[in-house]
Amino acid sequence: MTSLPSMAVILRLQGLNVEAGSGDIRKFFHGLCIPDGAVHIIGGKLGEAFIIFTSERDGQLAIRQSGKLLRGSTVTLHISSFAELKHKMTMQLKKQKGSSVAKNPASKTAVTHSVKLCEHQIRGEEIRSSKPGYLRLYGFPNTITKQEIYNFLGALSVLDVMVNVFQGRDQCCLVKVVSIEEAERGLKYSRITQLGSSIQVRLAHERLWTNAVEECEKTQTPTSSDQERLSPELHSGKRRLEDRLIAGSPKQHCSEDRLLPGSRRRHCAGTTVFVTEYCVMVQNLPKNITKTEIRGLFSCPNIPNNKIIHVLNKWGERTPTAFIVFSHPEGYASAMNMDGSLFGTKPISVSSITKEKMREILHKNKLANVASSNALTTLSYIYARNFPADVSKLEVSDFFGAYGVCEWNVTLLEDNGRGIGEAVVQLPCEQRARDARQALNGKLFMGEQILLVCVSPQQTKAILHKA
């Protein structure tokens, strides 16, 4: 199974420290593929730099670094384009004309070489520009016609339109335009009111268009059962030929095969099938959303439960984030196109993520959950009773003095601002709490026996809340 084609992504970085160089930028994006000569520092008042990533996945992972520190300065990242990069470099050359560049021909040659190098790198973009671009439009009524879409996008060079395409729970119109740049220009039509509705315009993947075309063709193409009914002799002959081919083929040994990275292997009689999996991270979901509702949202009814993974917080509660693992690129592409779609009143975020990164996130959350669970059941607190009503924290800490208790480890319980002779004491660890209870439970304090009980943080919270 072939993977989805990747394309280069350019990010514009702002806020770069004047002391930072290309090596610092590469270190900042450690683990992501940045080709040689793909870091272009512009500088200026905004501290700008442009970075070229070889794949869409790397670009998506890189932009998550926005807001982090690079050489002591907070940097922000934005999606850019080859055209903007070339324009910035050309403007940089023009600004330097008449100054040091005019006086120093070697400096001018160096800057010109940088522009040519950039042009060499954007040859791939020129090829990409020759490919058609795609848009998805939300908000039109289901009675909309192709001609009305053409009229709405009047200034764009539209090649084709498909109306009433279902994308998850939403219905949209798909538009094919002459180039990717033309599709990007089409985003300016978003939020324009048409036929009484605010229209949302978003970029779409070629795969979404292809899937819609295939679905349309399926309704016009006879199924295999129809073909068998129409030509039973041809079908039975084909089946006999397949049986002979299978019977005459040697068995393949699966156990010695090596798995490809990112793939898993299914064992069956005499053959090995490699299955590539595509992972997406969905954010901003309602915390109470179910896996069935996620299937409905992404129109993937056949995905098993173990391929939809809720991310839990350290308390074991669901967060607004979930992972979906697809076994087909069509489902993956369809899910990626759901980015920005509304679920209820909030837009959801859908991004690509590697299986390794997904496992890393889940592993960290699992460790945090285990640590939290252990902390909740650790009996490192003591609930103490029968002290005088006017007892002080100092007196209580002195009572537990041999076990490492200070005043700030003591919480006195009160009723309407008056002491009730009870306290919660935090010990350094569970073992120390057990030792203290065993030694001090029933010990006299000002003529009264002090009663001690070891409690967990959760129980402590309940006791303090009750007080």
From TrEMBL:
Keywords: Repeat, RNA-binding. It comes from the Eukaryota. It holds the Pfam family RRM_1. GO terms for molecular function: RNA binding. Residues 278-355, 380-457 form the RRM domain. SMART domains: RRM. The keyword Transport does not apply. InterPro entries: ESRP (IPR050666), Nucleotide-bd_a/b_plait_sf (IPR012677), RBD_domain_sf (IPR035979), RRM_dom (IPR000504). This is RRM domain-containing protein.
